[in-house]
User: What shape does this take?
Amino acid sequence: MMAARNDRPTWRGQFRPTTGFSERLRLLAVFGLSDGDVARAVPNVGARTVRRWRSGGPPTTRIAHRWEPVDDLWSMVGYVVGLATDDPDAVIAWLRSRDAALGYRSPLEALGQGRYDEVRAAAEAFAARVTARAE
Assistant: This one.
């Protein structure tokens, strides 16, 4: 990972599409998302299952449909990092916070409900607020 100003790590470029499933889960954990956070974005999955996936590999093909929500979370974190800020605390706070645009659900919950497009629109609004504050 490259260092940014003030020796803060930069996350831009870390969330690229070629990263494998287990590596994605590992990087989401290093970024600061808990197993519970990831589980909220994957329907009918608990934190223990996410922990097992991270340590023992991806789900079997029998349950490969669970990969898509993890991919959606991975993609959303990468999108917000690239669009707004590479500050993990700000991104995680947004992912965990209720958002009026999402019916007062958190982006993690909305992703778990399969509402990727709505979360992406909420991410764009979040990015606009972050950018406006920075100016």
